[in-house]
Design brief:
Helices cover 16% and strands 37% of the residues. It is of the alpha+beta class. Bound molecules: zinc ion.
Length: 280
């Protein structure tokens, strides 16, 4: 008799464990260019658009939607008990601005054959960095604006440079005087330091784990080395106008593997500049 009771209790526990109770939590923007940080029960497998996504031991994961992401995305959750949940995520579409920039040196808009070799080498380094799938979820530090200033370029805008259509802008531009501090948007590891890329000049990349990376371009100064561990808010460089730039600004990009995300959606509104209070 006692044995039977025990067996029933065990069976009930098994059923409870297999029920999808609070199995999925999503934080972020279900919108083109948006980043979503999710949480599942430890041991759960996450498949986003047929791609197995890394999940930290405590259940954290990151996914992103590109500039032209389709209206629907499929997220599959495989729980340790074997139960599979399939979620259809509705991705909000956006309309993008057209941005015209004139007065750029013609060589920076239509590069010479010799420049093309350099451009390809630069983009190879950037792509290599973006392929990293670092196990540590550094992004759990959350995010902040790397610099404060006037937003002079937004994510996704269609670019017309010196009258010629060029690739869309896949970052946020923050205009501020040369020398303005640039800070790490989150914890991470510096994966790339380049002193002179053709388009982006002095360029720095940080790996925030699970394929999430940030890039900081046109810097006048870089104050960290490749391999350095940084904390959110650490000084990593200073604003400049190196590479293809008409005035000092920070080009700030965020990516999830090869998918460019909108940094402004990752951090929310820019905090106001602190007004300096003069002492009497
Ligand atoms: Zn830019």
């Amino acid at each position: 008799m006692k044995r039977w009771r025990l067996f029933l209790v065990f069976n009930c526990l098994w059923v409870l464990a297999a029920l999808p109770v609070q199995a999925l939590e999503l934080n972020g923007s279900l919108i083109q260019g948006g980043l979503v940080i999710g949480r599942v029960d430890p041991g759960t497998k996450v498949i986003f658009q047929d791609r197995l996504v890394r999940v930290s031991p405590d259940g954290l994961f990151a996914i992103g939607f590109g500039r032209n992401a389709a209206k629907e995305a499929v997220l599959k959750i495989k729980r340790p008990g074997g139960i599979v949940m399939r979620e259809i995520l509705d991705v909000k579409p956006r309309r993008y601005k057209i941005s015209r920039i004139d007065g750029l040196p013609s060589r920076k808009v239509t590069p010479r054959p010799a420049d093309i070799k350099r451009i390809r080498a630069d983009s190879r380094l950037i792509k290599e960095s973006r392929r990293r799938d670092t196990p540590k979820a550094y992004f759990r530090s959350r995010f902040m604006w790397p610099a404060i200033g006037r937003i002079s370029g937004v994510f996704g805008s269609q670019r017309i440079l010196n009258g010629k259509p060029r690739r869309p802008h896949v970052g946020v531009d923050i205009a501020a005087p040369k020398g303005t501090p640039v800070r790490a948007m989150a914890d991470g590891i510096v994966t790339l330091v380049h002193q002179n890329m053709f388009f982006t000049g002095k360029t720095l990349m940080i790996d925030h784990g699970h394929g999430l990376q940030s890039v900081y371009a046109h810097l006048s100064e870089i104050s960290v080395k490749e391999g350095t561990a940084v904390r959110k808010g650490d000084l990593i460089g200073r604003i400049g106008a190196t590479g293809r730039a008409t005035a000092p600004h920070l080009h700030w990009g965020v990516s999830w593997f090869a998918t460019h995300l909108d940094p402004a959606l990752v951090v929310g509104p820019m905090p106001r500049k602190k007004k300096s209070v003069k002492k009497k």
